[in-house]
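REQUEST FORM: STRUCTURE PREDICTION
Request ID: SP-0412
Submitted by: Lab K.M.
Chain count: 1
Length (residues): 708
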Amino acid sequence: MSHRPTDWHILDLDKDPTPGWATMRRLQAAVRATLAVAVLTLLVAAAAPAHAADPSVNTQATHLASHLREDPVYVTDQLPREIPRSTAPAFAGLAERTGVPTYVLVLPLWSTGGRTLLDAVHDRLGRDGLYVLIDESGVTDAAAYGVRAPTDDAVTVSLYELPYDAGPLRSFQRFAEVVAQGPERAADRAEAAREKYDAGNEPADMYIGPSDRENQSFLTGIALTAVPLSILILVPYVRRWRRRLPGAQSRQRPVRRARAWIVPAVALVSAAAIAATAPTVFDQKRSSAAPTPTPDDLTARADRVAAGLKQDPVYADPESPQLLDARQRARLHDRIRAFARSDGGGPVYAALVPQLPEDESAGDSELFAAAVHHRVGKDGVYVVADPFNGTIDVFNHGLRLDSIDLYFDLPESIAYGNEAAAEADDHLMAERLDRLMTHLDKSPRTEEPEALSDPAPAPNPRTATTLPRLYSGEVWPGLFMGAVVAMMLFVVMSGALGMIARTLRRRSPEPAQSLPLSQPSAPSTRFLRRTARTELRALERSFTMHPPDSASAAHTRAADCREAAMLLAGVNGDTDRFADTATATTDPATLVALIVLARAGRAALAGDVEDRVCGVNPLHGPAETRRDVRVSATERNRRRWLPVCTRCLNAAIAEPSSVPALLLTLPAPSGGDNGRVPYYEAGGPLAAVRDGVPQLVRRVREAMLTAR
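STATUS: Completed
RESULT:
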C-alpha cells in the first residue's frame, strides 16, 4: 500500500520526511505560534496607556468625559467655598482666550491624577484640544492633544508670577493669557519668571488673614493715642528744655499763652488724620479670592449623593479613588440587607465621599450626613467614608441603636484603621466596612428610636472670607498700648535730651536761675568768684540774645541789676577782665551780691521780676514769705525776721534748729569765730539783700558814689 506524503512534506522538502522528525516539527510549530501570540500580547499591552489597567482612573475618566461631552468646562460640586460651580461661565470665558479648543476640569486636589487623568479623559472623550486641570490652588497640569500650545510654560508662569493666594480663577486667567501669546513669548516669559523667583523675588500675598487684620487694628489703636499724646507731652517738654540750654532764654509769658492752643490743636489734627487715613492704608476687605457661592452651589453635592443613595445604598464618589471592587460592593450589599432584616435593624446608607474644608459642610461629616439624611428622607444608619484620608464616621438617624455609642465609641480599628490600613492605597476600606456591619449587628438595641441632636451649622461662606472692620477687636488694647508707648517715648527722649543738655553745659556752663539744693552755706572765695564770673557772663549773653522791651517793668529791673552788677565787678562792661585776679574783686560779700544781682537780672529778662531773695542764704534764690527764724546754733533766742525760700520755710516749720546750718556764712575779713561770719555781718551793701533786690541795687549805687 502506497503512502501519500502529507502537507508538511511539501512545505519542508529539504528535511528528512521520517515519522519521528514530523512529530518534532509539529511541536516546534506550536511553540513558535505560542511565542508569537505572547510577544504580540506584550507589545499591545506596552503600547496601551498605563491608566487602562487602573479601574479607579477609568471610572473617574469616564465620569469626567461624560460631563465634558456636554460642556467643555466642568467644575466640581465639592469645593463651593473655594470654587463654586457658578464660576463655570467665568472659566469658560477665559478658556475662549487661548485660541484653541480648551477643556477645563476643576477638581479637588486629592482627586487629581495629573497628566495620567488628562490622558484617560482625552481617550474617552476622543476630541483634540487643550486639556487643563485645576484644583483649589490654581492650574496644576495641562496637556495639548492635536493642537499647538505652550502648556508647560503657561503652567510655570501661572505658578511663579502669582502668589499662592491668587485663587484658581486668576491663575487660569494668567495661564490662558500666556497660551494665547504663543510658544516663543511664553518660553521667554517662563524663563524670566523662574529667574525672578529663584532670585528670591516671590510675589507678595494678595490677601491677609484675620490675624493680620487684628495686627492692623492693634497698630491703628497705638497710633491713635501714641502720636497725639507724644505731641502733647514732648513738644512743651522740648520747648522748656531748649529754654534751659546755655545761652537760651524763655520768651515772654504773654507770647506763650497766645500760642498755648497750637500744640493741642496739632495733636487733635494728627489724631483725626490717623483715624481718616488708616482705613485707606489698611483697605483690605476680604481674606480670600474665593467668590461667594450661591444657594445652589451649597446644596449640589448633597443633592447628588442623596439621589445616588436612593438608587443604591452604597454610593462611591465618581470623582474620587474607587476603593471597592464589584465583589466587595456585592458583599457590602448583602451585609446591609441582612442588617435591615435583623431585630432592631434598618437601612444602612454608605457614602464614600471626601470631606474637605472647602465643601459645603466645611469638612464636617456629621453635618454632611444630616444633610443627606434630610434629602433621602429615610431613617437609618448613615456611614460617611472618606476615600482620601480613610476615616469612617457613623451616624444613627431614627433606628433603635445607641447613637452616642456609635458616634463616640466606634472602635479605632474601624474609624481610623491600623498601620496596614494607613499604608494601603485603599485604606482597607472594604475590610473595615465589613467589620462595621459586624459591629452594627452586635450593637445593643434601644426601646425607642434614637438620633443625634442637630449638628452646629457650618460657617457662613458669605461672611467667612470677609475681614472684620478695622476699628474693632484689637483696636481697644492698641489704644491703651499707645499711651504706654507715648510714656516710654517720653522717658527715652527726656533721658537723651538730659544727656545732651549736660554735655552743652559742660562746654558752656551757665547756672540755672535758682539752685537752692546745690548752693553751699559756707562757700569758699574761689567758688564765689567762679560762680560770679559765670553768672555775669550769662547776664551779658541774655541781654545780647533777648533784648528786653524798654517800656516794661522787667526791662527796668534787668537794667538796674546789670548796672549794679557791673559796678560791683569793676570791669566797666568787660566781663573777660573778671577772670583777672588783679583787676577783679575778691571780697566774698561783694561776690555774693554780684551773684544775686546777675540772677535777678536774668530772671527779669525771662519775665519773672523778683523783689525778695532768701534772707537765710541769698544763693537759694527767690523768697516765698517772711518768718522769724533762728540764726544761731548755740543761742536759741537769737532770731531774725527774714524772707525765706521754700526750703528754709519747711526747715523752720519742721525742725527750727536746722535753720542755722542753712545760714550763709562768709570768710571773715579780720578773723571771727572759726574765721566765718553771717553774710549780713560781712560788711558792704550785701546786708541790704534782706530788704529786697531794689534795696540792694540802691545800696550798691550809694556805695559806689561814696567811694568816688
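NOTES: Residues 414 and 432 are 5 Å apart (CA to CA).
Reviewed by: T.R.
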